[in-house]
Fold these 2 entries.
Entry 1:
Amino acid sequence: MATIGLTLEERLEKMLTALKKNNPQADLDLVRLAFDYAEKAHKGQMRKSGEPYIVHPLAVAQRLADMNMETNIIVAALLHDVPEDAGVPISEIEKHFGSDVASMVAGITKLGKLKYRGVERYIENLRKMFVAMAEDARVILIKFSDRIHNLQTLGPLQPKKQYRIALESLEIFAPIANRLGMHEIKGLLEDYAFKYVYPKEYKRVKKMVQERVKIKEEYFSRLAEKTRHTLAEAKIEPLEIDWRRKHYYSLYRKMLRKDNDMDKVYDIVAMRIMVREIPDCYAVLGIIHNVWKPLKGRIKDYIAQPKPNGYQSLHTTVFCDEGQIVEFQIRTKTMHEEAEYGIAAHWHYDEHGSKIPNKQLRWIQELAKVQQEMMKKVRDIEYLKIDYFKNRIFIFTPKGDVIDLPEDATPVDFAYAIHTTIGNTCIGAKVNDHLVSLDTPLKNGDMVEIMTDKNRKGPSTDWLKFIKTTHARSQVRSHTRNTIKDWLKSVIPH
Ligand code: MN
């Protein structure tokens, strides 16, 4: 990460520079104010990495500034964890930063931390997410940037948590980004998650790509030069000629379709030509085909026939110099921004927080479809999860903390797993908001609330008949033994 080694002040300046570059009118004082406000609110809080918490919202803001987003989104990004993690009410944020920022921050806070609390709760959370998105699509942009930074900083977390967050990003977040046409975001979510969900495959793909790209780097800069020259002769001056490496995860997916043979994947690195107008795209295509022979069946006109997600470009794969096969992607700047940022591309220039542009209403319908797909998907992942963690179940506290227990554990096992005192004073339990008896076997993903009574003298020896964990068993034994000893002491004179 490019920000490592920078001081907080330098990171802030870097973000402000990015914001100003794309948006010379931006109210930088307001952004600084939001930074100071968030820094103060998070004072004393640390990331798992040991860094001060504020590096997180700042990194989230940086990504959005790089994406050319308007000031209010940046301000909301800086403040996005203030209500949930620092307990500042939304009304305070509204007082200082106005209702537009406050409503975005409220939207993100409503999404919560999407803690995993079993499939039903998860689906409920996901529904909330779609509602928040439909209300204001900017919220999901902040959420995605938030998730990308969390994935980048998964390192210090426990493996089980790393896996869960990464799997969720890969199976839920990335497909949403994809359907919204945010390909850059989708690529990042997938690549950071890939490493934790399929570590072996990730290493293999990364190594193969690095070997190949190293050889090709010099080749591609020569090819870019030659392309520029050829286009100049035809009096076409492109805005940009660049080449980019395919994201690891999409490469991995593609390899699976191509018999695991990377030599059959022609677009590990693709040339990208950006021009001003649509006719220029076709002119460039003609010129390229005039110089290099195209591969049969590999010319794709996504301008005349956009992909279902709205993606537009011309693609062609040609036999290039020195026996190389290279894919060219030709597009206008508008197409490029839409390809990278999807619906988000429409907001940049709007300083006044117009939420969903009218012509994007189609997107809401799209969203409804994605939602249906996701709900199905969650159920599929749930099977995967149960399989993966056989014989152990996850039980959730009402606050969303996870307690890991053996199969068929009971509310009493759960109570002792939280704290001995809670176990000792336990008088009843609710599972998923329903009262149950204390010997009820718990199921993976249950949310359990323990009711206690301070005046309860201690555990009941009857519990030993159904308790599953050795921890709870030994606690009950030692406590009942104490009580009997105490009782004996009281009745037997010294
Ligand atoms: Mn966050």
Entry 2:
Amino acid sequence: MKTVYTCFCTDVIHEGHLNIIDEACKYGELTVGILSDSAMVRYNRFPSISLQDRIGLVRGLQGVSNVVVQEKIMYDEIFESLHPDYVVHGDNWSAEPMRAIKKNILELIDKYGGKLIEIPYTWNEELSKLDKQMREKLAMPEFRRGRLRKAIKMVPIVRAIEVHSGLTGLIAEKTIVVDGGDIDQFDAMWISSLCDSTNKGKPDIELVDMTSRYRTIDDVTEVTTKPIIFDGDTGGMTEHFVYTVRSLERMGVSAVIIEDKKGLKKNSLFGTEVEQTQDTIEHFCKKIAAGKRAQLSDDFMIIARIESLILEKGIEDALERAKAYVGAGADGIMIHSRKKEPDEVLEFCDKFRSEDKETPIVVVPSSYNTITEEELVEHGANICIYANQLIRAAFPAMERAAESILKNHRAKEIDSELMSIKKIITLIDEL
Ligand code: SPV
Ligand code: MG
């Protein structure tokens, strides 16, 4: 009996999958692989039901002999362990990342033997509607809010990229790279106070009011499904913060990060070059606890950001605060630094982790940007925020375009650096 393998990355079984099973089992004994949670996340198919439930969808279907978990998007481990005689797949390979998957399968067939059977991909109005419904479910506040807590458990480190508009939201949502045989993308979005303010031409001093910041969240949520971490600055007055918590929960935001500063807040990357005052441990703990009491959902997170290293108060002060903030109910700790080297952040992570194995640690490697995500994982970090790179990429590009037009009295010279007109008018899909 020949062995046949196919892999599903889905939360629902529809006629397209049944068709693949019908065709595949004609070739021999069929094993269906269910893509693991972490691989689904990397593939931009965040699972809306558990792995066990996904296995249950397939087990017992006519024509299916075995069900296994496929841990990675690429098929290497499957070929090594199962040596399938046939791999069956829909023929929808035209774009990345599907193209890379086909290449991977063909390379493995070259190495291990076997044959790829391509089945015409089933696509009709019904399935397109189903696909859209699945995506829309992911975007709903109730579902989106819980995604950050789930993602922390699913991937080695949650990568969040700064967004400050619908357009940057789309970049965070859709950018996928195929690199070294792996597929990668961002897990979450960071609505930075620096970038949200800068985008509105305002300084990062809590001047852009909450109503305006909520408008940015709205613009982002309208076109994305990924979880949002909101930069809540100092959280403002405790009496106001409790309302912010409720509003963010309602909008489907997953986490708010508040920093332990008081008075006129300035951006942390100024460090001690400007006057900034750290809050007392006692007062900041009260703010965290009040936020936790106000919170209505179980999945929303209040993350406490420690500014001790920014304000040169030392690691011991940071650790003391971390312990107190967790005690007051913080669901995570963000440690910030503006040093070029990651040493103080790593030392903090190591010391914090030696006492607290659970509480998520958030880091923001803006200035110590040589550190890799893999190194951060080794030191126990759970969320890595790329806090300002998109706006820093956009500004010089826009400035160059403006200067070129002024210098040349026409736009021809800059055109080769610009997105084509055809692309910009078709960039945004209509409903
Ligand atoms: C932000 O992105 O607004 C932050 C991070 O708070 S930092 O700019 O480094 O302070
Ligand atoms: Mg900020």
